[in-house]
């Protein structure tokens, strides 16, 4: 953090050498204050596919969470100013791990990850796979429960975007997202397989009942896998991910994190 409490921007280096564009905001309560950063939780936001740290919907979520604590936003590999190419949720776990480590280095004792859509799957897998450098609370919004789902028209379009050369060209030039041409090998741990490994870390699963990408069997499957350590919020009228999350929901998530992150 800069001396006057203003946001800090830098590039982080992941374990596999990718440069990740990252932003730290100390939060509205700490801005201009001399109090220690360790008193507030830090929200590490994992955006959805084709998002980045500068997208308006990501900045809106960051501003909401900044009223509850500090915030780290970053662009996944292949997105925005970050290096590399998107693996659509696989090696992105390493990007989130770098952001969480940075949050700890900045002095925050309590770290919560909040992910949307693809980012929602990443926060689940990160919490399961990086328990040694774990987080204090996990929030997954609009995430899939399983891979390769094609049951809705938006997901069929997304699979075309990712798997076809012409789709990847649209991703690069139309959506500012550089997508890796290689298929997963091996197939990564799925979100529903990751969830049982997160306990006893508090877990919140949030999903809109009007989500056009993933129907309600996805969050219900995740919640069932979580058992007693997970909590499910089904939001009436909400669509998909950051764009659809109303301001009131973001603040309720912020309150939940402050209460649950210890």
UniProtKB/TrEMBL annotation:
Stored InterPro entries: AB_hydrolase_1, AB_hydrolase_fold, FrsA_esterase
One Pfam family recorded for the sequence: Abhydrolase_1
Keywords assigned by UniProt, alphabetized: Hydrolase
Entry's Gene Ontology molecular function annotations: carboxylic ester hydrolase activity
Domain of life: Bacteria
Occurrences of domain AB hydrolase-1 (ranges): 41-144
Stated family: Belongs to the AB hydrolase superfamily. FUS2 hydrolase family.
PANTHER family referenced in this protein's UniProt entry, alphabetically: DIENELACTONE HYDROLASE DOMAIN-CONTAINING PROTEIN-RELATED, POLYKETIDE TRANSFERASE AF380
Name assigned to this protein: Pimeloyl-ACP methyl ester carboxylesterase
